[in-house]
Amino acid sequence: MEPKRNQIREQAAMNYTLKNIPTEIYERIKLRAQRRRRSINSEIINILFEATTRRRPPVEEILARADELRALTKGVVTDEFISQAKREGRL
Could you state, in order of their start, the residue ranges of all structural domains in the chain? Predict the structure, then answer.
């Protein structure tokens, strides 16, 4: 099945120029791109994609995941437990 004409337009890449990016923001994007082994342009596209497609999970889903994690700890995780785990190299 061939794509419709308007679907082809949606797939075409668009060009946009960002001007007056503050140095601090540019440097953060540059570092983020380096960590992910991407170009700065690819990283900006990824940031825009994430910002426009994020899905906030329903509250029920968040609570269910919290219950699952709580069950994995098998009790209360205290500061002492965490400190001991760090000393033992488990964290």
Answer: 5-53, 57-91
